[in-house]
Task: structure prediction
Amino acid sequence: MNRRGEAKSGGAVTLVALITIALVFYILLVPSAERERLLEGANASKIGERFLLDEAPGRLEFTERAVTDHDLSNLYLSETRNAEVLHQENPFTVGKGIITEQRKIFSFSVPDLRRTENIILGFQAIERNGDLLILLNGQPIFSGPIPIQNPPPIVLPIDLLRSSNTLEFAVTGGVLERKKMSFSDIKIIGEVTQPEKQRALSTFTISRDEKEHLDTAFLDFYPICEQDAVGVLTITLNNRIIFAATPSCDSLNRQDLFKDDFKEGRNELEFTINRGSYRVEQLRVRTILEEVDSWIDYFTIKSDAYDDILDENRDVILRIDFVDDGNRKQARINVNGRYDAIDQTDPDFEKDITSLIKEGNNYLEILPLSELNIARITVEVE
Result:
């Protein structure tokens, strides 16, 4: 039994020896370049990994300017009112007899009560026999004689007015006498504010990078006005109210803006007033962008690996594979405090950094000077 076991063991040893001898002869007989590749794993094992760094950063963004000023044109806002005829009625007659009575009722509308003021009723009283009674929406607003043909206008109380209204004319006075009054040129006139003069619009454009990297922003404006004669100035940015107050006249006003106030592309600033007149100058939207973030990574070279690199004259190569988009690639690279620049359109960048590396901790920093799309970054020992 023992002899059979020893025979089997001796056969296995002989097989291993034959395989080893064959491998040695194979390595000696292959070309030197091929032999170097076969042995590369053994050399790399001395220095640790062949790739000291292997990363795929992707997109690195770049902000061209830290501060951007959007200067806007001067604006003029004014509360302008024009007298407009809101209603004109045909001539009519009202009267009162012993038994019968003739009244006149007509309707008129005020399209925009909020912007209409000083509404008056004017008429010519051709025949004036009796006292006149006028009711607005059922409420008396005048009662008495009309002594002259062209009487002063009658003010229609604003608190009685609605969008749709009625006026009623009647004659009063006397019991047994017949009274009669005739009217012509009946007009209702109001002062209507012109909203287009109280509103102004300015636009400016925000780029994608400016929107994404916005840190702080503000609006500057210098209103020229009379402090006691103006009302509220309302400013909206993209339909969002950012200011609604009476500004300081004849001085620079500043209003903070925020990232959510803006949108990429066209932005709209709207200015409206409710009273007075403004000339708005020195209009500027200033955006201050956050600092560009650099890409940084670290790799370590142990003491024995560093010695092997030096002793064996190995090269340490930095390679950057950009996306081949045809765009200009600009960046500043920093290896352990030593700087170099990239400025090319080719998708491949290569640099020997053997003299820049050191034993222990190392770092690689890339500061983009244009938008970069990086597929791969490697630091390789060759």
